[in-house]
From TrEMBL:
Name listed for the protein in its UniProt record: Transposase
Keywords: Membrane, Transmembrane, Transmembrane helix
Pfam families: Y1_Tnp
GO molecular function, one term: transposase activity
Record InterPro entries: RAYT_transposase, Transposase_17, Transposase_17_sf
Positions of the Transposase IS200-like domain: 9-115
Transmembrane segments: 12-32
UniProt source species: Pedobacter ginsenosidimutans
GO biological process, one term: DNA transposition
Length: 184
């Protein structure tokens, strides 16, 4: 079993990236982004998640996180991905206005059938790609800048703080959509 992308230090701060299976652009819809935000907020309040920075792009998420004392990041991530996938898949199934419903459910079902860890559907890719951030190497600032500049690089906004589904505005002195634990 590979140990390249694992949570090795339980008290460390990590940069994490994870994506929807097949890189499906689920988060082009506000309703699905909001469900993910609800899951992040819940994990922050109830599961011991310290959320330092975040961004939701059309098909992937970047987070800078750590855990509160007595909590384990692998467990938090497992619960976050499990619950958010359940809620988002339920919304896709029940959303009468979703024009891509059959196509997305087909792809999520196909991915689920190919993975013995799932019964029916797979929403998130298996990996989290956690990278431990060393505070002595300016890694926090580099990763926060990278994370917040994703929509700028994608041509979605001119300024990172203008992208609604990110914590960039929190680092500019404003108030974002969900509470975070600011690092710098």
């Amino acid at each position: 079993m590979s140990t390249k992308y694992k949570f090795h230090e339980p008290t460390a701060i990590y940069f994490i990236s994870f994506a929807v299976v097949g890189w499906i652009d689920v988060f082009t819809r506000t309703v699905y982004r909001d469900l993910l935000l609800e899951s992040l907020s819940y994990c922050r309040k109830e599961k011991g998640l310290n959320l330092h920075a975040w961004i939701i792009m059309s098909n992937h998420v970047h987070l800078i996180i750590s855990s509160k004392e007595g909590y384990l990041l692998p467990n938090i991530m497992r619960d976050l991905k499990k619950y958010s996938s359940y809620r988002i898949l339920k919304e896709i199934r029940e959303n009468t206005m979703e024009s891509r419903k059959e196509w997305m459910l087909y792809l999520f079902s196909k991915a689920g059938q190919q993975n013995s860890n799932n019964k029916n559907f797979q929403f998130w890719r298996q990996d989290n790609h956690p990278i431990e951030l060393d505070p002595h190497l300016n890694m926090f600032e580099e990763r926060i800048d990278y994370l917040h500049n994703n929509p700028v690089e994608a041509g979605l906004v001119a300024n990172a703080a203008d992208y609604l589904y990110s914590s960039a505005i929190d680092y500019e002195g404003g108030k974002g959509l969900i509470d975070i634990d600011v690092l710098i």
